[in-house]
């Protein structure tokens, strides 16, 4: 008999990863996943899904390294297993190139990806506007396949799934003993976090099966990521922009910039265009608190604000959230007596 009832709010890559971690590791918990949107309608579904990272300013680097390593190792194990095609997780090799030599030539995550090295002058010749580059093999996650695979894994672990909009944490307090908030941009309203903001991203899927290596400009605004069924090219990073419609000017800019890096893209047919809003914050919020809801104290674990790095660190922050839930469960009897 499951004795503790928990709920995870949000079914993007962070919410699903967190729900799976809790359901698989805490068998005494009955876990429900609640979300207004599920795949293929989440922000994560449009993510390019390549695993590399930026540095968050106010989080200990050691913690960020752990998030990256835990996530990378988890996805690498899937990519190298029989589950790779069903999960949509593959290895991807390529180059990250810079117009100016970056201050940090060896980012904190370089030890965890495979074969990280500085590009040779010969390799850089094809990118005359760029002075420096890094070559490595990482993991690419096709979220439109990965999210349903995670959801199935969650159900197999005994998880329940319910599609509905959660307007307030108050409405969950009667039914659940703990709440895990993975609502991304929704946290602006759900928990009143004014520091969450959208960063608009527009990408195209093109048919270019001859491309096998990724190319990413270090500024994060131009990238070419070959996947299983198509190549994702982008992009935009428009802070505070809530527009969800496709912008023709952005499409033309993406095609122009990407074709300069990879001229053969001029021969590629555009299959689709997509816009999503990255749930951004100065730093991701991965912490717990006790809130008074409907007259009783309820533990709430937050795991949101990953911006464009959701796929990259989702599993690492999910393991942190799992540990925070464990701490809450230890304190729960004591709270119940108050």
Automatic annotation (TrEMBL):
It is found in: Peroxisome matrix. It is an enzyme of class 1 (oxidoreductase). Keywords: FAD, Flavoprotein, Oxidoreductase, Peroxisome. Coiled coil: none annotated. Its main location: other. It catalyses: D-glutamate + O2 + H2O = 2-oxoglutarate + H2O2 + NH4(+); D-aspartate + O2 + H2O = oxaloacetate + H2O2 + NH4(+). Its cofactor is FAD. SUPFAM superfamilies: FAD-linked reductases, C-terminal domain, Nucleotide-binding domain. It holds the Pfam family DAO. It comes from the Eukaryota. InterPro entries: D-amino_acid_oxidase_CS, DAO, FAD-dep_OxRdtase. Its EC number is 1.4.3.1. The keyword Oxidoreductase applies. Selectively catalyzes the oxidative deamination of acidic amino acids. Suppresses the level of D-aspartate in the brain, an amino acid that can act as an agonist for glutamate receptors. Protects the organism from the toxicity of D-amino acids. May also function in the intestine. Belongs to the DAMOX/DASOX family. This is D-aspartate oxidase.
């Amino acid at each position: 008999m499951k004795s503790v009832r928990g709920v995870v709010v949000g079914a993007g890559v962070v919410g699903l990863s967190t729900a799976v971690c809790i359901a698989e590791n805490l068998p005494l918990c009955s876990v429900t996943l609640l979300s207004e949107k599920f795949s293929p309608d989440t922000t994560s579904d449009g993510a390019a899904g390549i695993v590399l990272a930026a540095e968050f300013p106010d989080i200990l680097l050691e913690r960020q390294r752990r998030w990256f390593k835990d996530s990378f190792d988890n996805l690498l194990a899937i990519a190298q297993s029989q589950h790779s095609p069903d999960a949509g997780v593959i290895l991807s090799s390529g180059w990250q190139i810079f117009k100016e030599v970056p201050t940090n030539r060896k980012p904190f995550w370089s030890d965890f990806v495979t074969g990280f090295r500085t590009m040779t002058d010969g390799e850089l010749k094809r990118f005359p506007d760029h002075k420096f580059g890094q070559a490595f093999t990482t993991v690419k996650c096709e979220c439109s396949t990965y999210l349903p695979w995670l959801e199935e894994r969650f159900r197999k672990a005994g998880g329940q799934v319910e599609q509905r909009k959660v307007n307030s944490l108050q409405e969950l307090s009667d039914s659940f003993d703990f709440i895990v908030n993975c609502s991304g941009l929704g946290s602006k309203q759900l928990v009143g976090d004014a520091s969450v903001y959208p960063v608009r991203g527009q990408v195209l899927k093109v048919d270019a099966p001859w491309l096998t290596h990724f190319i990413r400009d270090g500024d994060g605004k131009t990238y070419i990521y070959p996947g299983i069924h198509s190549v994702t090219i982008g992009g935009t990073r428009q802070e505070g922009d809530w527009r969800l419609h496709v912008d023709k000017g952005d499409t033309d800019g993406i095609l122009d910039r990407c074709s300069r890096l990879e001229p053969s893209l001029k021969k590629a047919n555009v299959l689709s265009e997509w816009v999503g809003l990255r749930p951004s914050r100065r730093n991701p919020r991965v912490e717990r608190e006790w809130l008074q809801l409907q007259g009783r104290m309820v533990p709430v674990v937050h795991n949101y604000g990953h911006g464009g790095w959701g796929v990259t660190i989702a599993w690492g922050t999910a393991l942190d959230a799992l540990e925070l839930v464990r701490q809450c469960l230890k304190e729960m009897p004591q709270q119940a007596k108050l």
